Amino acid sequence: AFTGSAIQVFGAKNSGTGTEAKTITAGTGITISAGTGFIQVAATGSGATVIPRSYLAGCTLSKNAATTVGITACMTTSDDQTTVMNATGAFTKTFAAWAVGSGNGGLDTGAIAATTWYHVFQIVRTDTSVADYLISTSATAPTLPASYTKQRRLGSIRTDATPAILAFTQDGD
């Protein structure tokens, strides 16, 4: 956050003047479009935050139980680079039908299957900024719950023959 009246963002080339910086004045709501190197998260009141494209912080996946995935606090940009998604606390999701909130189901469709790859996504409702998580067999096109319009794949996990989540280690992003 900043308390001044404006910030300079470098890496955003101004197509009209060719300059390498863009000035953002607090409270103006100016958005730096994706593709310029940055996405503006907020510029209201006296604070502005600018984050890089493809941003991912936190979001560590873990096996909490045979059919429960843990996700640490997580902040990402959506896979289309237009929306910031932020879940400030740790979550767990089970392999039951999806329901909003930690400790609830995470599957987008169907029931848990044996020896199957699943992909964990952070999702968000852009109308309320509520972030949650979804588990899908699709790596690129999960079935999003009603009103959730943005997604970002965090990682993949596999079930064994019982079916239960196989032990795994997450290495980096």
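[next item in queue]
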Amino acid sequence: MIALTTRRGQRLAIVGLGGSGMAAARALDAGGADIIGYDDSPARMAEAQAAGLATGDLKSLSWAGFSALVLAPGVPLTHPKPHWSVERARAAGIPVIGDLDLFFGERQAHVPPAPVIAITGTNGKSTTTALIGHVIGQAGRQVAVGGNIGTPVLALEPLTPVCHYVIECSSYQIDLTPALSPRVGIHLNLTPDHIDRHGSFEGYAAVKERLIAAVEPEGMAIIGVDDNASAAIADRAEQRGQNVIRLSMKRPLADGIYLDGTRLMRAGGGAGTVLVDLAGIDTLRGVHNAQNAAAAFAAATSLGIDDNKIVAALMSFPGLAHRMQIVGRRGKVIFVNDSKATNADAARQALASYDHIHWIAGGVAKAGGIADLKTLFAKIRHAYLIGDAAPSFAATLAGHVATTHCGTLEEALRQAAAAAQQDDASEPVVLLSPACASFDQFANFEVRGQAFTALVAALP
């Protein structure tokens, strides 16, 4: 835990006592701040009280004397309407910040040399964050990985000037971090998302761009330029005089890193220089993972890590749990846990990355089902359907892909594994990429992925 000594003696309100909110409360309390925590959930209030943290009804208490409102990222700041606590803070004239703002304030006060690598974008943030952390660690440097990826940033080990902090940043978190100042800022891509929380795509994009604009003067801005909005962010960063590395998976670049087949290339010298061939790195299959690898290469290079060390680290990357995670092999068959694919768009990346797929799908379907995946149906040898979505998925697949209603994950894996062993392909894949929420049969996608991994381990 990072004890927030810069806030010692200050009175702060904390609203939202989930993972990051509780971590902020503990860090402030440990640093000597006077806190009052609140959550709309009585169960979370009780949990905070049981942990020895001060709570109170901030709806009825006076806000005089508070120095800031620490808002959890899941609590609305602006849209669809500000949370009542935000309105109380604004009426009292106090700033509204988040846990990342507290982190950056503490780092600036005590260990400004500590390199912070901040990652955002609509897709690929978690894998890129994990991959950069892996590359830095494999290069022999001290590293801590946190933020939106799972471990709240204030729950990391105490700050030291030699540790590299690799932080995944959601748009909600960026919106609450006026003190944002990474050494390396990475923006991967932009597609419409979270419009309900930002009002419009333009509002969402503007929040994302703040991470790039906040990069330290001598730092590096790394930007994927394969969508128009992100390309414009790169252009504006360059116009501001920032150091910029562009990434493209669609076309060669005059300057930056781009994808040529399965090879990442560094632009320059005519044909460019091959950095690494991603063919054969199972955990980095697909164009989306090529962008993640390109971002990691650019970040590590800007931190002074040798190219050979970067390549070796990419080759040893174990992958992100529940995201195209290879969890076993039986003979020629690969078993892939993509349980984090809780909608069709998320499942698209795994389906696009493999051929000869024995697909396990289903659960609680999202709006639109899997109709948007039709261009990938030719890759699927057979679909093994589970959960509530099985009938609707079977109807969409009819005439394109043979299906079997399996009911449970265990039965689906049993049938898929047997069929894949008989497949005449050189590398058939049993893929759990449900394109559904898990709540009809599992508590969450992590539990679903863990169940699949355990069932694969038990196969003969």
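[queue empty]
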